[in-house]
Design a protein that fits this description.
With 430 residues, the chain is of the alpha+beta class. The chain is built from 4 helices and 31 strands. It has a 4-stranded antiparallel sheet with strand order 3-2-5-6, with no helix packed on it. Strands 8-31-30-29 form a 4-stranded antiparallel sheet, with no helix packed on it. A 4-stranded antiparallel sheet has the order 9-10-11-12, with no helix packed on it. Strand 22 and strand 23 form a beta hairpin. It is globular and about 75 Å long. 25% of the residues are buried.
Length: 430
């Protein structure tokens, strides 16, 4: 009987400890003395967060103490507010404005990259198959192409000569499959016991319809992207793996560009009417051809220089999704069904040296991004809890291509400008 009572008391004690405590506060600007909206507040020990409202207020329910609130907002210095226990009154937090977009980065010694495939072949492209490099190589324009598989120690485990084919790329689907591209056909690639071989063929149309839109996968869903309105609206959907209707996950749009698109459509209609009035002596088909050529030239220019695609990468990590919404300056963690968990302000992408790339290490779950750094390339690790970045490594080379990371190892292609070695080679750091 005493044992039973003791167990009940322990359980009640645990319940009491687990009761949430409401943490409230107000955030203001130190210079303007005004409340700050859209500030991210995150408690890492409790794994919960909040965003301040128009009055600068926020509220969090915490069950674990001690904890430290990480408070970050674009244009302000990030601060940490330690909590030993739940405060009795709302806390007043004051943020200092920050002129620089990025925090100071202490650059360590350069990381020298190692060439991991030394034969006199130029690497046309490569992918990581289960963390191991798979290369598409060519010696010169007259020789055949080869597929070359390497192991974890960068030793060649198998080669395949691609007779009669003129491949130009290797790609990897969200399900992990590798594809070899030619101008006429696309081939699936398999690696069995270290040896690459060609598998089924896929038409270019099938590939573009089924493989290209796929951006991520977990045990429940396969995630697809859909672009609209000159790539100014990007929608993500989830297809249940056991069948059923698709779920709408997230839509990212650039409101300013969409407004410009609408105005542009009206303006082009005016151009058409004016052309018909000015060149009324021409036949209808001649006017239509002239207008069509004019609009086509304007579209080509706008697509290249005005309507650049929205930058909003979605990654699936087990039962969670991470969206890097660079268009609207935040990253967002979501449940696998798209339900929002928290938003974190980000600012690294506003730096003029940003290379518009997000790298996901599938083995560790970490995220990285790249910056031009003079004659070098700076690799930054992104803290997805508070949106800050820290130096990961500084590569001794600029203009690196096809950067990928797996289990802390960083791979990239690089072409030396020296006349004696103009081949594109695969390099590795780590």
């Amino acid at each position: 009987m005493k044992t039973t009572i003791t167990l009940l008391l322990c359980c009640l004690s645990d319940v009491a400890v687990a009761q949430p405590s409401a943490i409230r506060g107000v955030i203001t600007d130190a210079q303007k003395k005004q409340p700050i909206e859209h500030v991210n507040i995150y408690a890492p020990q409790n794994e919960v967060g909040a965003v301040s409202d128009a009055a600068g207020g926020f509220s969090l329910n915490l069950t674990k103490f001690p904890d430290t609130l990480v408070i970050s907002c674009i244009g302000f210095a990030t601060i940490k507010w330690p909590l030993r226990s739940a405060p009795a009154a709302p806390i007043a937090i004051i943020l200092q404005q920050q002129s620089g977009l990025l925090p100071e980065v202490s650059v360590s010694a350069l990381k020298k990259a190692e060439v991991i495939y030394t034969p006199e072949y130029s690497v046309v492209d490569y992918e990581l198959h289960e963390g191991r490099p798979l290369l598409l190589v060519c010696k010169n324009s007259l020789s055949a192409h080869w597929l070359v598989a390497l192991d974890e120690t960068d030793r060649v485990t198998g080669e395949l000569k691609l007779k009669g084919l003129q491949p130009n790329a290797l790609t990897k689907s969200c399900l992990g499959g590798i594809y070899l591209h030619t101008n006429l056909q696309i081939y699936g690639v398999e690696v069995a016991e270290g040896a690459p071989r060609l598998a089924e063929t896929v038409s270019i149309q099938q590939y573009n319809q089924l493989v290209v839109p796929c951006v991520g996968v977990n045990d429940q869903y396969i995630y697809f992207s859909r672009w609209r309105y000159k790539n100014q609206m990007l929608s993500y959907e989830a297809a249940p793996r056991d069948g059923g209707p698709h779920l709408a996950i997230k839509t990212v749009l650039d409101e300013a560009q969409l407004t410009q698109l609408a105005e542009e459509g009206w303006f082009r209609q005016v151009q058409i009417e004016n052309a018909k009035w000015l060149f009324g002596s021409l036949k209808d088909y001649q006017i239509e051809n002239m207008i069509s050529n004019l609009v086509e030239d304007q579209n080509a220019f706008a697509d290249r220089f005005v309507y650049t695609p929205i930058k909003a990468n979605l990654f699936a990590q087990e039962e969670r999704l991470c969206l890097f919404n660079h268009t609207n300056d935040y990253l967002e963690w979501m449940k696998s069904n798209g339900e929002s968990l928290r938003r974190i302000p980000i600012q690294y992408h506003r730096d003029k040296n940003w290379k518009s790339e997000i790298l996901n290490d599938e083995a560790t779950g970490r995220f990285y991004t790249l910056m031009d750094h003079g004659k070098n390339t700076l690799v930054l690790e992104i803290n997805t809890y508070d949106g800050t970045t820290s130096e990961y490594m500084l590569l001794e080379k600029a203009f690196v291509q096809q950067v990928k990371v797996f289990n802390g190892r960083l791979y990239f292609l690089y072409k030396d400008f020296a006349f004696s070695d103009r081949n594109l080679r695969l390099h590795r750091v780590g």
